[in-house]
Predict the 3D structure of the following.
Amino acid sequence: MLKDYLARTVRATVTDENDNYVFAQVDGHTFRIAKKELKKVPRPGAVISGFAYQNEHHQLVMTKQVPKVGRDQYAWGTVVGSHGDLGVFVDIGLPDKDIAISSDDLPLLRHLWPQKGSRLLLALTVDDKDRIWGKLATDDLIRQVSVQADKRMMNREVTATVYRLKRAGTLVLTSDYYLGFIYHGEREQEPYLGQVVQARVIDVHADGRLNLSLQPRAYEAISEDAQMILAALKQNQGHLPYTDKSTPAAIKAYFGISKGQFKRSVGHLMKAGLVQQREGELILNEQQ
């Protein structure tokens, strides 16, 4: 059957050629291979090998450009587009063929489908109609290829790819193959499947899994006035003789802002756990 030869490297016997292609047969199926891929044109009867597939014109093709993705062989592919309700198409490196991933294997919500440029970890499968499909890596397989993180990863920035969407949050695999989870409270909006995100490590589990956040660090989320107050504290050993009880004139003279602006900024800093007010002083918390 033809499906037995597709999406894998095969050996075929050369039967003919034209200006652009060499033709070779295996089990009665004729494949074409571009002459520009060959160092030397083989004679009829010679055996050549290549990766076998049907191109976008439904022609049987062999190529020397063997993709990393194969049957039960997983590798990363790049999403190049989607088509109606069919699914998304992924570039795995074939000259004239993108691989479809069925909508049946994608999130129910269309806005969470992989977008152009997304990365998906997939292998290939062939159905009874000789169509090649991509199949996404399972959770078990991703756990098998992952590595354990240690406590030194705490608070680091990581690049990660979304591989599964859950009600409680988002499962990701980092560029260093650490498993990560982003709780729904640690993101502004839900990432889509295959999205590459920049995240921060907020916890490291005993089994090496990471808890991640897409939220900005506290000091990144505060206003310019608050950042200025933080800078002043750091320049003065973490103590300043100003609080929300200080006079407007004293605050204006030192910080160059109104007392209202000062109170709002200090309030945000306190809420973020960065500072405290005690005994007539504004104090930088020790963890900072």
